[in-house]
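Encode chain A's predicted structure.
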Amino acid sequence: MKHIVIFASGSGSNAEIIINNLHQTSLVVDRIYCNNPKAGVIQRAAKYDIPVCLISKEEWNEPTESTWYTLLEKGRPDLIVLAGFLWKIPNFLIENFPEKIINLHPSLLPKYGGKGMYGLHVHQAVLDNHDDSTGITIHYVNSEYDEGGIIFQAKMDVNPSKTAEHLAERIHLLEHEHFSKVIDIVLNK
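Encoded structure for chain A:
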């Protein structure tokens, strides 16, 4: 059995899809790490009895003395999955889990990546630039925002999206369709 942990900051829709889809495989979500005590992912995790570890900014910056990092080190997951986690992953984590941290980005990288490019910011940039297509990228995490090796991309036409919110809804469908499958592939290669 392979073990993953999820890092999330928001509603947790991708986390829940992952939990549901992986439930039927030999993969298990051991824990969710969250930096937002009001995030919807906390309630979603509770439905599946998956423990959540809240991380403060202070703990994030002092990992060796922090509960979250102790739990992560003790569990030694096979994969760390970023599913809407908005803090930059520090180098010590990347060095201790090389090629074991993946992220889902809501654009076709290298377009619209980097600091501050998440969620509606990305979708609005796509619309503002009148792109014909957009999509998702699942990639390994390295020391730079959204510059790790690309594992998978899925593309879709921008039309008929009229707003960033509408485009976000359509992108979520791609994320939900592909993220769990790619996690399974990465862990079983």
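The domain at 2-110+137-155+177-187 is CATH 3.40.50.170 (Rossmann fold).
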